[in-house]
Design a protein that fits this description.
Length: about 400
């Protein structure tokens, strides 16, 4: 018997018992639908999280005083000392964070102001859209210049390049006009759509505009050298500040790159957990197909005997039942995948995001459906092939 003939006879058998085939295919489709939706949403969330963390631009190390003590404060001068003394430290930037507001003739709102130095571009992976970042002179003399992101620029002036424009900032009751010297790509756009107003507007200004060199810093961001070991560098930074610089209090050094990897790993674990739940429903569907095929084998015992009496070999009988199971599961897999695509497309329109099924994953799910169909049909096919023609016709 040719393969095409086996496929035709398997399709005929499915058509004759269309309700059973349909229900088996639906059960498989539901399992596939749940797996595809969970995987697609999980991958989307992981991708958004990764883009959001990358857009913020943090990497390397950050050091801060977790518990204050009596004595030497952690100041901006220590950032310069770290970069000048430790070979593993490529650049160090003190950070002072304060909240405030921005205002133009038509727009106003709240923001978080970050005081930074001339190493902003070295320490944080920011992408300039227009203009430039603060230089050493502006940081030293506290020039009223600022760097904002493209979302705020669009909100204020309905265009991205607004370098040269002046915006009124108010920080701790002090109001001053700042010149916009640079516009960067949005740092919150990738995750802001999901969290809305919970994500603050970040505005970068020279460190000396928010604090003096003698005031304590909130954190020091450190960009390590290319081949430096982050954990070892963190230990050196802590020892340098504690013992040589005599910084009081409890110093904490955090590996930002490692924290990002841990967050991504946790996101993947959550996705894998929900995917396992979807796989259980898929496995239950396979049991339904297996039960249906055993039932079909019992009902068609006489027909099997007639086929074998007419010259059909045992492998031909096994092939028909095996193909019937594969076609049933493949039909359910295709239906579940198509329905998942429709639902994701509808959700994309409603939420304003791009939700799609990765091509590789869709192909893998269909291949898995066919494989599980084959496994579900193996034992019924073997049972059908072992029937004796005469005994089968008697039944």
């Amino acid at each position: 018997m040719k393969f095409a003939d086996g496929v035709f006879l398997a399709a005929v058998q499915m058509a004759r018992r269309r309700m059973r085939a349909f229900l088996c295919a639906v059960s498989v489709g539901v399992g596939v639908l749940s797996m595809v939706l969970i995987a697609s949403l999980g991958l989307f969330g992981e991708r958004q999280l990764q883009q959001g963390m990358e857009s913020v631009g943090l990497s390397g190390l950050t050091v801060y005083v977790s518990q204050a003590g009596q004595g030497q404060l952690l100041t901006a001068k220590h950032a310069s000392a770290l970069a000048a003394t430790l070979p593993e430290v490529a650049a160090a930037m003190p950070v002072k964070v304060k909240s405030g507001t921005y205002r133009t003739s038509h727009q106003n709102g709240s923001a978080v102001f970050l005081g930074v130095n001339e190493h902003l571009g070295d320490v944080m992976g920011l992408s300039l859209v227009a203009g430039r970042l603060p230089n050493a002179q502006e940081v030293k003399y506290g020039r009223a210049v600022a760097v904002i992101d493209e979302v705020l620029a669009q909100k204020l002036y309905q265009r991205t390049n607004i370098t040269g424009k002046s915006v009124r900032f108010t920080v701790e009751g002090k109001e001053e006009y700042f010149e916009i010297i640079g516009v960067i790509k949005s740092q919150t756009g990738a995750i802001g759509a999901s969290f809305g107003n919970l994500i603050p507007t970040l505005i970068y200004v020279p460190y000396s505009c928010l604090a003096s060199d003698k005031e304590s810093v909130d954190q020091i961001f450190i960009q390590c050298a290319a081949k430096a070991d982050l954990d070892d560098t963190g230990t050196q930074v802590k020892d340098f500040l504690s013992h040589r610089e005599q910084v009081a209090g409890t110093l904490s050094v955090q590996n930002v790159s490692g924290a990002v990897e841990q967050i991504q790993g946790m996101a993947w674990m959550v996705t894998a957990l929900f995917l396992a739940v979807g796989a259980i429903s898929f496995f239950v569907a396979m049991l339904g197909v297996l039960s249906g095929m055993f039932s079909a084998t019992h009902e068609k015992t006489a027909e099997i005997g007639i086929f074998m009496a007419l010259g059909a070999q045992r492998k031909d009988i096994a092939r028909i039942f095996l193909l019937q199971a594969v076609l049933t599961c493949l039909l359910g897999g295709v239906g579940g995948t198509v329905l998942a695509g429709v639902l994701l497309a509808a959700a994309s329109q409603v939420l304003g995001v791009t939700l799609s099924i990765p091509f590789g994953f869709a192909a893998a799910v269909l291949a898995l459906s066919a494989l599980c169909g084959a496994l579900s049909g193996v034992f019924p096919a073997i049972r059908a092939a072992k029937l004796h023609p005469v005994d089968a016709m008697r039944k």
